[in-house]
TrEMBL record:
Pathway: Protein modification; protein ubiquitination. GO terms for biological process: protein ubiquitination; ubiquitin-dependent protein catabolic process. Residues 4-42 form the RING-type domain. This is RING-type E3 ubiquitin transferase. One of its GO terms (molecular function) is ubiquitin protein ligase activity. InterPro entries: RNF5/RNF185-like, Znf_RING, Znf_RING/FYVE/PHD, Znf_RING_CS. It catalyses: S-ubiquitinyl-[E2 ubiquitin-conjugating enzyme]-L-cysteine + [acceptor protein]-L-lysine = [E2 ubiquitin-conjugating enzyme]-L-cysteine + N(6)-ubiquitinyl-[acceptor protein]-L-lysine. Keywords: Membrane, Metal-binding, Transferase, Transmembrane, Transmembrane helix, Ubl conjugation pathway, Zinc, Zinc-finger. Residues 56-83, 115-136 are annotated as: Disordered. The chain crosses the membrane at residues 144-164. It is found in: Endomembrane system. Residues 57-83 have a biased composition (Basic and acidic residues). PANTHER family: E3 UBIQUITIN-PROTEIN LIGASE RNF5-RELATED.
Length: 165
């Protein structure tokens, strides 16, 4: 018959998801109480989109109608975009002949970008609004200060190794 992808046994009251994975109805019903993603491929699933599989010799009753206790489904929020470990990204660019200059760019991953330096500094300045509360902005500011100090220290160390002409 069919093997359940949760209990790895022959599926009792087999059902299949829209993404094509087989489960026992009791197993997937318990899974649906805590998650709305397929346990195998993480695509979205719901009770309404699960298809019962009727095999020869099995009863013709819809396995989704059994008396398995249901809890109200929780509200699922979209995950925040992945960020770097310190909630920011930094980049350095340098322009070579015939356009000398350099630029530092700091981005906090939440829509705000700070540029410093560059030959055309006024055109590079960008600051975009972010809908975040004060508690989330404070760690970002601390991260910017720390990273700025790290870049300054690295710049100082590297420049000390360059001989003066």
């Amino acid at each position: 018959m069919f093997e359940c992808n949760i209990c790895l046994d022959t599926a009792s009251d087999p059902v299949v998801t829209m993404c094509g994975h087989f489960y026992c109805w009791p197993c997937i019903a318990m899974w649906l109480e805590r998650s709305n993603q397929c346990p195998v491929c993480k695509s979205g699933i719901s009770k309404e989109k699960i298809i019962p599989v009727y095999a020869r010799g099995a009863e013709r009753k819809d396995p989704r109608e059994k008396d398995i206790p249901h809890r109200p489904a929780g509200h699922r929020e979209e995950p925040e975009p992945r960020r770097s470990p310190f909630n920011f990204e930094a980049s350095f660019s340098s322009l070579f002949f015939p356009f000398p200059g350099f630029s530092f760019t700091f981005t906090n991953g939440g829509g705000t970008q700070f540029n410093q330096g560059g030959f055309f500094n006024n055109q590079n300045q960008q600051q975009q609004p972010v809908n975040r509360n004060q508690n989330q902005q404070q760690p970002d500011l601390q991260n910017y200060i720390i990273i700025g100090l790290v870049f300054f220290a690295l710049f100082s160390i590297i420049s000390s190794f360059i001989p003066y002409i």
